[in-house]
Amino acid sequence: MLHRIERDRVVYDMSPEHKPVLEVSPGDTVIVETEDCFCHRIVSESQTVGGDFDFTHVNPATGPIAVKGAMPGDTIVVSIESIELDDQGVIETCPSWGPVSNVSKSCVTEIAKIHGNYVSFMGKRIEVRPMIGVIGNAPADKSIPCTTPGRHGGNLDTKNIMAGSRVYLPVFIKGGNLSLGDVHARMGDGEVGGTGVEIRALVRLSVDIDKMPVESPTVETEDAFYLLFSAQTMEEASRGAVKRAIEFISDWKSIPREKAYMLTSIACDLMISQVVNPLVTVRVKVPKEIL
Ligand code: CA
Ligand code: CA
Description:
The chain is mainly β. 11% of the residues lie in helices and 40% in strands.
């Protein structure tokens, strides 16, 4: 069955308190209209997030979508079929954003037009690689702002969450209550300046339930699994992601942990997803060829 959710059905946090705006069955397809991370309040270069910009309402996520039959301990599997971009995105940076401060003296905006498969930046055409920044399920007993990533998903800002990928998210409450938004036409690993090309989009996806639990968000592409981990520091996040890779490989291949650690060391890549959110996110790429 095909469903559609409009762009104004958004949440700003992932919470067990929010009532689902849609209930779907496993296997259903949903077209999700997503809002951009600034709620479309920055549409010209004379507008910035400086001054009295309302940061309590950013990163809106469309939803929540309840999946019939999903129970705590299950995994919701989101297959992203396509991401259709609006015709204009926004890039923003501010003096305190990212690892290098005061590159700009004040908040600055760049409006980036989309032409087919390209985004135009200062006259240069750069290929788009549409991806979803925010995607997650409701946590069990607290509310987590959409700006923050974690075990539930949230602001993961991971480039591989794109058309053709499958995202595995842990379920904490009945129905899971999935929501998503914050699409980027393009983003570099790290999202160092604070944004990608932030843009409205139409995301077409299907949902399913896997009874196998997953500890933390995992992304599957044609040739690899990406095991994500978010934490306060890069060291902690790296440790968490590498530990996940060791356990994943060891369990998949039924080999001892130390052999899986060796395999991780010789064939898997430790990669940075983002360093600009309240928790940083890293991932380990496990190529399918070694499994
Ligand atoms: Ca984001
Ligand atoms: Ca964003």
